[in-house]
Amino acid sequence: MAATTIRNLSGFxxxxxxxxxxxxxxxxxxxxxxxxxxxxxxxxxxxxxxxxRMRAAWGLDAPLFVQxxxxxxxxxxxxxxxxxxxxxxxLPEIAGRLPWSVTIGAGGLGLAVIxxxxxxxxxxxxxxxxxxxxxxxxxxxAQALPAFAVGFVxxxxxxxxxxxxxxxxxxxxxxxxxxxxxxxxxxxxSVARVTRVAFCEIRDRPYFTTALAKGCSRRVALWRQGRRxxxxxxxxxxxxxxxxIIGGTAIAEIVFSLPGLSEYVVRAxxxxxxxxxxxxxAIVALWLLLVQRAAALARRSLDPRLAxxxxxxxx
Amino acid sequence: MIRFSxxxxxxxxxxxxxxxxxxxxxxLHAPDAKAQAAEDAPLRVGKTFIAAATDPAQGxxxxxxxxxxxxxxxxxxxxxxxxxxxxxTDATRIDDLTWQVTLAPDRLFSDGSPVTxxxxxxxxxxxxxxxxxxxxxxxxxxxxxxxxxxxxxTSERPTPVMPSILAEWAFPVYLYAxxxxxxxxxxxxxxFTPGARLDLKPNPHYPQADSRNPVxxxxxxxxxxxxxxxxxxxxxxxxxxPVESRAMLQASGDIAVTSFPVEYQYMMWMxxxxxxxxxxxxxxxxxxxxxxxxxxAAARAGRVAHGAFSQVFPFSADEPARHDAQAAAAxxxxxxxxxxxxxxxxxxxxxxxxxxxxxxxRPDLVTYQPVIRAALADLGIEVTTxxxxxPTDMARAGEFDLFLWAQHTAxxxxxxxxLLLFLGSEGANNYSGWSSAAFDxxxxxxxxxxxxxxxxxxxxxxxxxxxxxxPVAFLVTPEWHVGKSARLAEYEPWGSxxxxxxxxxxxxx
Lengths: 315, 509
Prior knowledge:
The complex is a heterodimer. Chain A is mainly alpha-helical. Chain A is 75% helix and 0% strand. Chain A contains 13 helices and no strands. Chain A is flat, with a radius of gyration of 24 Å. The relative contact order of chain A is 0.14. Chain B has two domains: 1-5 and 41-261 and 480-509, Periplasmic binding protein-like II (D-Maltodextrin-Binding Protein, domain 2, 3-Layer(aba) Sandwich), CATH 3.40.190; 264-477, Dipeptide-binding Protein, domain 3, CATH 3.10.105. Chain B contains 15 helices and 24 strands. Chain B has helices spanning 2-10, 12-40, 61-67, 117-130, 162-166, 223-231, 246-251, 280-289, 292-299, 325-334, 363-378, 391-397, 416-423, 437-448, 452-469, and strands at 43-47, 75-77, 83-85, 88-95, 98-103, 141-145, 150-155, 175-177, 180-182, 187-193, 197-202, 215-219, 237-239, 256-261, 264-270, 303-304, 338-339, 345-347, 350-351, 353-358, 382-387, 402-408, 472-477, 479-484. In chain B, the strands form six sheets. Chain B has a seven-stranded mixed beta sheet with strand order 10-11-12-1-13-24-14. Chain B has a six-stranded mixed beta sheet with strand order 16-23-15-22-20-21. A four-stranded antiparallel beta sheet of chain B has the order 4-5-7-6. The radius of gyration of chain B is 28 Å and the shape is globular. At the A-B interface, helix 2, helix 3, helix 7, helix 11 and helix 12 of A face helix 6, helix 12 and helix 13 of B.
């Protein structure tokens, strides 16, 4: 038991370290010098000596390996560095913004799962019906329409035409409503289609026929016999999406002016703000690994037959 | 008497009468109270940029603090582009490295304490030590109080324009007391969410404090979202709107949109290291071939550039950039680039073909690309357009023939910064690779001249020389657009985004 736990934790840590080191190297390969970008954006002139001095002040003059080890030691001890662009410590900045992004991402995905699952079931229960057509429309719309444009249409309709929400000056719930709706709108279609397929698969199974023979209606039999299978299928599909809850909501944050993490990272990329980007990669890597483990555990609890296939298992 | 009153009060008629009177009084006063409340309500500002920090020693916080009306510098640039005293009255050059600055009398920090030379020295020494941006222009500066109102400044490198350096955004003055920061601007911070929202209240120690409303600044990252927020009535001022939102806002009737020229210049570097562009006649031909009015029409905003500097500045060139396609063709003929019919221009079997680069961070420049390509194609010059996400890297590497560029050419109200850094032979940002002994001699003059009028004359001479040699074509002075509700109808923007909220912001009679 203890040996397995240690082995699992070691694998987990090593995976995280490899992703973080790879991210560190990739960031440095991006074209653009953060010092020059900062000075350009600030309207300050500087000669070579000033550039060198600023690079030294930002710790960019040391060899790359030394920079990485220094960053890693500080990151683990809770010092995540100072943002080049804002001059503020990165940790409190990320901590302040993370709840907005997580709420939008998790709220949007949660809403999409609740609505999409019901819609997918209704589509499977009556192929070719309204729900089926609606789910197809939403799925195609999510692929074809730019999220930015849909966000502005929502803003126009609900904030200006009908004056139902105040996305800029309202309370927290009012400000979160439209971003969550936007994120959900772009996932409901795919969730519904996946759910529909999973429910439809059940119709060929003998236990479905048995349920019908026992006198259940098609709809009730489909729900009772298929919901577990549909949930399992959906779980496998939405887990990668859940991984993007951190950092994947930039459009919603920008369109609806929310101070989330994703929007912060977009700006950090433009400024080549390594301090912010490196910390972001580290927490996203951690989150991805945790989501992967959580997904495995969730799949096992829904279908114990999968237990043997899981990496993260008890001794 | 008491008993009589009690009886009266119990009477339904009297109760009804009292209630009616109360209602009447309330109704009569309600509109006044409502109007008063509306008048006292905070002014709501939407901007695409907001302070990320409140300490000038951190990043570019100094810029935001001045722009938001919280902090002042010793000197500033006024609406006519002149460098004027703010917390200081004047500056005198003692020797190459030393200046003496006299503080303005009766200025107070927001906690009520006086602005003394010692307080100024303490704050600016701290900023210089902690913020590398404060050491960019003249190296490290050392501030020393000589008396209550007299300050000595020693610079690491000589500078003839210390007031201009002190007007840079890195140098707001503050009182640093026990970890708290107190500034001198017309507003002070009431509440702050870094990078998202800033609530300001009038600074009680600034003149006319009672005539100012509180201000709420909200960061709206996207220009279209900013326009929609103004249209929805969620903000009173939308600063820096996209040009395409102008018509929609003006059509709403109760919103005014003001366009104003900014201190940035759109220009096009010409790489003098390339074979064709090494010849000044080719560069001048390209400069003459570009119709600036066509660029303005394409981007739907801007004014024809007058030399290197926005017309706001007293050192701007007098004449606008010229457009003369015939003269351009003649210059190319003279340079040996001959055109046969409608074909491309050629010399010694080589086609005159150039690469024109722009970057998406300035969308107007990308809009200009096809217009310039068409103008040069009419002249027989083949142009390939390219977009880069890393303009500075590409410009420094010299991987271009023509490079569209946006630059604030006088961020601290002095022409020396741009001319020296971007066009001097040894300039760190001399992207065109141009080298002119005559121009360098003018820069040497500029380095020795402190008098503003004399500097303006030298700057104009320098611009005439640039026009003759054309290492760069100055194209357009861009315009920004500001949307205003009726509450801020009197607001006039100026100074780009350096001075958005000023002492006259929403000032009541």
